[in-house]
């Protein structure tokens, strides 16, 4: 009886600790943002959101995050395929480097991009001579977003490829299907849920990126100023209402993306 009593109390204490951790670390900060954004009413909120600089920053962020996500889909699918289906020297090292953006501070990533693509670098110098500017323009923002979101699609499709029944692929070849037809009819449908969930997570992460972008964007209002940097500027300008209003837009969009990802994963698990 005493052991059962202690076990119940331990279980209750453990669950309570987890719930308190979740509430204080996630629920309360999110509730605080929504409360702050609507603290002065709907009209000030709408004025903050509809401010031309805020609106341009949000639209620019969405546009560049979409571009980075599309590149991630293409590159991530190819890299994930190569790392699973091929064996070559250095494969394990490359596979471990995929997670580097998760471990590396984003500001360091931004500095790396600045040194690699800046005006004084070889690549930046050649691009400048060709009349193409990278750093302090939109291409640098896309590269920064691509760097921090690089692992999502790769890590999402790798388990699907590992678990895939190769007999279906072999049967397609036996029936005379070409490699391209087998890929799009047999392999690609298996990879698609991972590609979609990884792409949406990459898009959501790109929307929120700050550290890597702030060093390479130039932060020109209406041109290279993205939403996260705009929020930081509003805080620095003692305008928490405006910062919270734009944060609510990004947060709500992230909630929608997260819900969609969970729905895709639930449907995949149910199949």
From TrEMBL:
GO terms for cellular component: plasma membrane. It comes from the Bacteria. InterPro entries: CysT_permease (IPR011865), MetI-like (IPR000515), MetI-like_sf (IPR035906), ModB_ABC (IPR011867), Sulph_transpt2 (IPR005667). The chain crosses the membrane at residues 12-34, 54-84, 96-119, 139-161, 210-232, 244-264. It comes from Paenibacillus prosopidis. Residues 58-261 form the ABC transmembrane type-1 domain. The keyword Transmembrane applies. SUPFAM superfamilies: MetI-like. This is Molybdenum transport system permease. Keywords: Cell membrane, Membrane, Molybdenum, Sulfate transport, Transmembrane, Transmembrane helix, Transport. It is a multi-pass membrane protein. The keyword Nucleotide-binding does not apply. NCBIfam families: 3a0106s02, modB_ABC, permease_CysT. Part of the binding-protein-dependent transport system for molybdenum; probably responsible for the translocation of the substrate across the membrane. Part of the ABC transporter complex CysAWTP (TC 3.A.1.6.1) involved in sulfate/thiosulfate import. Probably responsible for the translocation of the substrate across the membrane. The complex is composed of two ATP-binding proteins (CysA), two transmembrane proteins (CysT and CysW) and a solute-binding protein (CysP). GO terms for molecular function: ABC-type sulfate transporter activity; molybdate ion transmembrane transporter activity. CDD domains: TM_PBP2. It is found in: Cell membrane; Membrane. It holds the Pfam family BPD_transp_1. Gene3D superfamilies: MetI-like. Belongs to the binding-protein-dependent transport system permease family. CysTW subfamily.
